[in-house]
Amino acid sequence: LQQFSDAGSRKEHVKITSESKPGFLERLSETSGGMLMGLVTFLLSFYLLFTNEGRALRTAKSLDEGLSLVIPLDSIHSVSQQNEGRLVHLAGALSTSKPLFDPSYGLSIQAVKLKRNVEMYQWVEYEESTEYEENGEIKKETKYSYNTEWKSEVVNSRNFDREIGHKNPSAMAVESFTAVSPNVQVGSFVLSKGLVDKIDDFKQLSLSNLEDPHADVTRGGDYFYHSENPRRPEVGDLRVSFFYAGLSGDDPHLGSADKVTVIARQRGDQLVPYHTKSGDVLQILYPGDLSVEEVFQKEHQSNTVKTWALRAAGWLSMFVGISLMTRIFYTLVDWFPVVRELVNIGLKAFALCVATSLSLLTISVGWLFYRPLWALLIGLLSIVPIVVAKSRVPPKKQQ
User: Fold this and answer.
1) What does the alpha-carbon distance between residue 347 and residue 342 come to, in Å, rounded to a whole number?
2) Using the 8-state DSSP alphabet, how is residue 216 labeled?
3) What is the pLDDT of residue 256?
4) CA neighbor of 226 nearest in space, from 124, 120, 108
5) Burial label, 72 (beta-carbon count in 10 A; 0-12, 13-18, 19+)
6) Is the CB of residue 269 less than 8 Å from the CB of residue 191?
7) Pairing of strands 284-287, 184-186
8) Residues β-bridged to residue 231
9) How far, in Å, CA of 63 to CA of 281, rounded?
10) How far is residue 125 CA from its own chain's centroid?
11) Distance between alpha carbon 359 and the CA centroid of its chain, in Å?
12) For 273, which DSSP code?
């Protein structure tokens, strides 16, 4: 059954599908599949939590090691053989041997990276679904709506519920790309590929000083349009914008070259990765002129954020895994409305307590070989959720 809310433009339509309500055995079968998925998720959470602790401690020790060994360079314009193979700190302006070009649009810039971003005006499908029960059947009402938008990826209209009237081209006539300078330096030192990869603070390039490159291309604001009328684009029209990262020369419109701070190993006139005794690799780059202490403080903060994000992800995986594995108890009583809700609340509370306890226990085991006292403390904390849960159970009245 389909209903069109706008028969003229057909920008929106509704589809209703129905299926018989699944029986008890069918629901049980689905729950069994969920239990298997839950078991896999549950086991993966242990691996994630345990390895994350080892990674976090290894990174922290590597950063401490780096801070104790790093040597600030007196000059970035001369290469001293005394620092060969050592971890060095330097700050200065970026420089590249030659500008980056996009001959198709008559554009050049002295920068580390130049990105051409191409977008196509396309149909995009949105859907909203609601389910309800009627006459013993489960019905699903899905509303499909279509809108035209600029997208940097080709939207495959073949997957639309209704492609007629909403067909997109299968490819773009102009491709996006990113050009990277082959030789990037700070003073006399050449940056490794890993350091160059860290220069990714892209800014949009103003096109106000450029002419229209071709007769069929029109400049509007900071875009080049492949369109007969950029104000009223049609499906298939293109617009092109440019972004740059790491300005490496003085530009009359963009200002002076960007400054960066680097900590890496000196190998001749190259700055390459430094392998620490703890097993990590140090090759650090930040925008701006930072001291050694500021750089390592930022790295420690980044490590802390990553550690807590992965801890949260591990706990969530464990909670979801336990919830899926215990879902069968809900399925067994799902025809009793009141009992069903009580069981659901109980299962969620159980999953919450067990996931929290096991997560803390796993983290403590991860710390066991590195910091035994902290491991013991976290291990004791792991029993707190169980104690709290037991304390909330009312004691039996004395006879």
Assistant:
1) 9
2) T
3) 92
4) 120
5) exposed
6) no
7) unpaired
8) none
9) 10
10) 24
11) 24
12) -
Strand ranges in 63-200 using DSSP code E only, listed in sequence order: 71-72, 87-96, 100-102, 107-109, 111-134, 137-151, 177-180, 184-186, 189-191
Residues 42/44/50/54 CA torsion (nearest 10 deg)? -160
Contact (Cβ atoms closer than 8 angstroms) between residue 21 and residue 136? yes
List Cβ neighbours of 351 (8 Å cut-off, separation of 6 or more): 319, 322, 323, 326
Enumerate residue ranges in the chain where pLDDT < 70. Answer: 1-10, 15-34, 134-136, 211-215, 328-340, 343, 369-376, 378-379, 382, 385-399
Give the contacts of 11 (CB within 8 A, at least 6 positions apart): 145, 146, 147
Written as six digits, the tokens of 340 are: 């069903």
**Distance separating alpha carbons of residues 351 and 311, to the nearest angstrom:** 17
Structure tokens at 211: 């002419």
In whole angstroms, how far apart are CA 145 and each of 9, 14, 178? 11, 9, 34
Q: How far is CA 60 from the centre of its chain?
A: 23
Largest Cα separation within the chain, whole Å, is: 97
Separation of first and last alpha carbons in the chain: 66
325 with 43: CB under 8 angstroms?
no
Strands 111-134 and 177-180: antiparallel
C-alpha 259/C-alpha 143 separation (Å) is: 52
9-62 per-position pLDDT tens digit: 447 777 665 555 554 455 545 666 667 888 899 999 999 999 998 899 899 999
Q: How many CA within 13 A on the CB side of residue 251?
A: 20
CA distance 308 to 108: 43
Residue recorded with tokens 């530009």: 251
Entry field: residues in the chain: 399
Q: Which two tokens stand for residue 328?
A: 């069968």
- Written as one letter, the residue type at 375 is A
How much is the pTM?
0.77
Residue of 354, 333, 357, 353 lying closest to 344 (CA atoms): 333
pLDDT tens, 64-102? 999 999 999 989 999 999 999 999 999 999 999 999 999
Instruction: Give the gyration radius of the chain's Cα atoms.
Output: 30
CA distance 141 to 129: 6
Q: Which residue has tokens 């080049």?
A: 224
Cβ proximity of 285 and 23 under 8 Å? no
User: To 5 degrees, how large is the angle CA 220–CA 181–CA 118?
Assistant: 30
